[in-house]
Amino acid sequence: MKKFTAIDAFCGAGGLSLGLKNAGFEILFSFDSDPLCIETLKENKKYHDHKCYSLDVKDSLNDRVLKIVNLKRGDLDLLAGGPPCQGFSIQRTVGGDFDDRNLLVDDYGDLIIEVYPKFFLLENVTGIGGKRGREILEKFKKRMESHDYICHERILDAKDYGVPQRRKRYILVGERTSSDSHFCWPKANQIKVKTVRDAIAHLPPIPSDGKPHPDIPMHRADKLSDKNLERIRAISSGQAREHLPNELLAECHKLSADKIGHRNVYGRMEWDLVAPTITAKFDSFTRGKFGHPVQDRSISLLEGALLQTFPEDYVFLGNKIQAARQIGNAVPPLLAEVIGKEIIRALKNEF
Q1: Residue 308 in domain
Q2: What is the pLDDT of residue 94?
Q3: Which of 105, 207, 217, 241 is the most exposed place for a label (fewest CB within 10 A)?
Q4: What does pTM read for this prediction?
Q5: Which domain holds residue 153?
Q6: Is 31 in contact with 68 (CB distance < 8 Å)?
Q7: How many domains does the chain have?
Q8: What positions constitute the catalytic site (predicted)?
Q9: Which of 37, 52, 85, 151 is catalytic?
Q10: Is 85 a known active-site residue?
Q11: What CATH number should be reported for the domain holding residue 339?
Q12: Does residue 134 lie in a domain region?
């Protein structure tokens, strides 16, 4: 049986690679400009046995990627990637409309044209379709269409595909074809909804002093300050800062959440619902609804990884902040797998 080939650009900690591999792709090469992410991939040899380099996307051009994988232009089945999205993020509250990271979409377009894969995948935050990103996105799509690609775009919510987390992402699938399109979007809600309880309830409690569980190194969370301990003990599962007594509110939160937002900071997750979006700062109780449903702490690194659908034995290198960033920035492997299976189905039909 033919093995369909893929390259993962902007690979991060490997969530997209892992999901595409589970879908049936042979990952030939991954690269990212963050050396720590590449070290994380190399540490997880059980899941990643392909070449992976610390490489900026500009340095991947001039046929360098094709030489690394020993393919000719047009031979690759899938080029996938999620250019760093902070410039488009709806959580971004400072700065102008221009961000150097937005230009990475154009650089990714250069790589697509050079490699000329049968399919490409672009994953990003939903904000790329808003004021900051729409102009760049429309330019990118027109450019791809001028090089024989049909562009399929949709906002997908990971919770609709078995991920125990609300996580809306903009997905663009480019299909190289001179005739009819064969790609179809995965059908939502074909997999039983997985809850926070399903994902993390089996894990043992962890020390309250910020140290990891003695037998599970990734199962660790920061020690809470005395004030934050008071706050988390004052709320129940599913509650957040709106439910705190006035004396436990930070000064900046004493105005109504309807006026200033940040409704879900200092919050606890709910056992029998999906988690909120796991961000790069999910390890902090002050940053969102990242409190454990019943234990008086933030969720651990391992719990965040499981809510992202990484395997339980997957390792993230670096200090706690660096590991949380890798986990929160990753594409959930299960979402990548679901999309990857549809791309393989289209490849079988078209090529």
Answers
A1: no
A2: 41
A3: 217
A4: 0.92
A5: 4-187+332-350
A6: no
A7: 1
A8: 85
A9: 85
A10: yes
A11: 3.40.50.150
A12: yes
